[in-house]
Amino acid sequence: MENSTAKPVAKTNGAAVIESRGLSKYYGPFIATEDVTFSVSQGEIVAFLGPNGAGKSTTMKMLTGFLAPSKGESRIAGHLMQEQEERILASQKIGYLPENGPLYNEMTPASFLKYMGSARNLSGSKLQERLDYVCEQCSLNTVWNKAISKLSRGYRQRVGMAHALLHDPEVLILDEPTSGLDPNQVHEVRTLIRNLGKSKTLLLSTHILSEVEAVCDRVLLISSGRLVFDGSVSEMAGTENNLEDRFRELTGNCKV
């Protein structure tokens, strides 16, 4: 696992910019999530950790207003995400990387991101500045003008990350940001996340313990749709300093 000493120390002002209040989602008798409640303060990098199928993506979608909860509510930068007008206002402040986010396969990263930037009212030199920034930060130079349909999963994930960063949002919500990446790409994305954490608030879902140790200040652990731990990485590791053992203990011996 990567050495967690490389992480920046979070500088927060205590103001909650991401809030989940009792978020629950039911599909008939099946409980996808139940009473998920937490807040993330400005400047934190928080891991939303859990085994596959624990409810991470469902919670992310409810947080960002893409999925209506059965009960509960979420707020981002003070905006109630279950209200359409509020969600529109919040959209300028949020960068969201969903699991398997939609991309236009017939477009290139350059044309796709230019189109999405224009849709966010970016134009002229400002748009070009942001395009240059995300191209460099997400290492898209070699595929910038290649059809998205021909890109590997790892490069498609990078295009999704670039889209989330394009409008320079205050808050980033990233669902499995290193999914499909090779080890070198994983290192690059983790470095990017650490750098972004110096000026932004980040919530990232993952089931990878080394990712938590490498980049996060705090852990929210979900298991079977319920939040079972909220604390620092060192608090979760416990006196034995073993995240994997604690993960298994808290999630009922689910596989990492």
Automatic annotation (TrEMBL):
Transmembrane segments: none annotated. SMART domains: AAA. PROSITE patterns: ABC_TRANSPORTER_2. It comes from the Bacteria. InterPro entries: AAA+_ATPase, ABC_transporter-like_ATP-bd, P-loop_NTPase. One of its GO terms (molecular function) is ATP hydrolysis activity. Its EC number is 3.6.3.-. Keywords: ATP-binding, Hydrolase, Nucleotide-binding, Transport. The keyword Iron does not apply. Residues 18-249 form the ABC transporter domain. PANTHER family: ABC TRANSPORTER, ATP-BINDING PROTEIN. Belongs to the ABC transporter superfamily. This is Putative ABC transporter ATP-binding protein YxlF. The gene is yxlF_2.
